[in-house]
Amino acid sequence: MAHITASVYTSHVPAIGAALDLGKSGEPYWQPLFKGYEPAKKWLKENPPDVIFLVYNDHATAFSLEVIPTFAIGTAAQFKPADEGWGPRPVPMVEGHPELASHIAQSVIQQDFDLTIVNKMDVDHGLTVPLSLMYGQPAAWPCPVIPFAVNVVQYPVPSGNRCFQLGRAIRRAVQSFDQDIKVQIWGTGGMSHQLQGPRAGLINREFDTAFLDQLIAAPAALAQKPHIDYVREAGSEGIELVMWLIARGAMNDIEPGGKAPRVAHRFYHVPASNTAVGNLILENA
Amino acid sequence: MALDKPYLDVPGTTIFDMEQSRLGYHLNQFCMSLMNAENRERFKANERAYLDQWPMTEEQKLGVMARDLNRCIRAGGNIYFLAKIGATFGKSFQQMAGSMTGMTEEEYRDMMIKGGRSVEGNRVVGEGGDAQAKRQPQGTGAGRLI
Question: Is some CB atom of chain A closer than 8 A to the CB atom of B34?
Fold first, then answer.
């Protein structure tokens, strides 16, 4: 039986990818950020998954305004790093896991979440920056990745509770997969940031700290937070944080009798470009 | 029956909802075309001629040519789409976001290093914060991407 061993949460700021790709990670501006991720990288090396189920959002890359799926699961064998306008990031091809992805799609749709199935898709910084932050710059990504794209660009986006319940369905889907493999679920995006208008540059450390506290200890209550609270308190792009609730909903303690997870790592840093960066690792007990 | 839009009173912020998306469809789809290197070169060679291939409004075309991202957003643009324009000219997200505040690149970068913009006074239209309409522009920048 497959099972979810841990959930990893991280921001996916494009400038972080650019800093790594251009060899700027040692600069004073970036040093505290990359240093803060060192324990997470070490943890990942010691706790390697067989597959990563990576929740992220596409930033007008694979999905234009022609088609806007709320939840899309990547079932392909490979996903190419996209040219977002600056040229493609020099990172390895992302290998998928079609067998598990198809299994999850079938199971989750049967649990009433109407996923869009994507057999061809380029992946943008939303997916590749978390891999870079957690793995550095390897010649190939160490394990297959199932991309799971959530619409948080075109309003209305899915509610926190919808995301949280979806996470529970994903957990059930993984547990009904016959192979004995370890799956990590990653929730990415956030934390507080706003990229548009005269209010651009908004950061709310107090909100972010409370979000992390509640994500760890009271996720079901956190899932009830309405969109407008994210927009007002964490900035218009801070809404990406609803994606963290998908990963959190897939943890054991959400179900009756499940034990609270262990906090393996927690880190927070301001700024990376326009954004507050958060990183959290929760291990299933 | 009115739709529920509780986000309309957030200062200095335009939520890209169904209405904005409808207004900005061709503007945003033009931006998507810049994800192709050849198209980026064609656009740079003659912006007006390239824009005229799209059924955009004149206001949208002028907003793009002026690199005025606030103007583009008012006309239905979304920042993730508009970012392709900035990318075409090698601009970062920080340069793009900063351009909408009226600050120079350096002023905006300094604000971020000091911890970013405070939410105090910037939650609801009519409070006293620096993102409020009455306090624009915020710095000595051009108010557009240069």
Answer: yes
Closest approach of B140 to chain A, Cα-based (Å): 14
- Domain residue ranges in chain B: 15-90, 92-126
Indicate whether this complex's ipTM tops 0.90.
yes
User: What dotted CATH number matches B15-90?
Assistant: 1.10.700.10
Residue A5 pLDDT: 98
Split at pLDDT 50, 70, 90, the class of A255 is: very high
Residues of chain B with pLDDT under 70: none
Is-contact A145 A94, C-beta < 8 A?
yes
The verdict on pTM exceeding 0.90 is: yes
Question: Which of the residues of A are catalytic?
Answer: 125, 193
Nearest-CB residue to B122 (from A82, A195, A202):
A202
Strand partners, A269: A277
Q: Which of A96, A95, A117 is nearest to A105 (CA)?
A: A117
**B89 touching chain A per CB within 8 A:** no
Residues of B in contact with A231 (CB under 8 A): 7, 10, 13, 15
Return the CATH number of A3-283, one of 1.10.569.10, 1.10.3720.10, 3.30.420.40, 3.40.830.10: 3.40.830.10
pLDDT in tens, A24-83: 999 999 999 999 999 999 999 999 999 999 999 999 999 999 999 999 999 999 999 998
